[in-house]
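Worked Example 4.2. Consider the chain below.
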Amino acid sequence: MCCNYSIINESNQGMLVFLKGCKKYQLTYKNLCFSLNHNELITLHKFLIRIDSNYWEKEYSNSIYSKKIPIPTLQSNFLIMIDEFELFELQHLTKPKTKKYFICFKKPIFPINWN
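Applying the procedure from the previous section yields the following structure tokens:
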């Protein structure tokens, strides 16, 4: 991990960090750690937003496992299973920070008459 980093988002179970030296994002969540470039992070966020948790809860309603929402990986024998709260938390972690805009007051360009 690079020494020069900035924390983008945090939650109780994870953190999204931008590594300035290698220009990568590192997403840690519970016992998982992902190293992502900018495009991969955006793609992951879009994928997480599109997951229909209600569909997967119904699909795996007879499952013996409490976590019913699957996240596929490129490795065919590895599937990440999460629950609805974890999905919400991952969506929050991968969401890009929104810029805060403040109203700034400039010196008026017209004269003020204090009658």
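The chain has three helices and six strands. The CA atoms of residues 72 and 79 lie 5 Å apart. Compare this with Example 4.1 before moving on.
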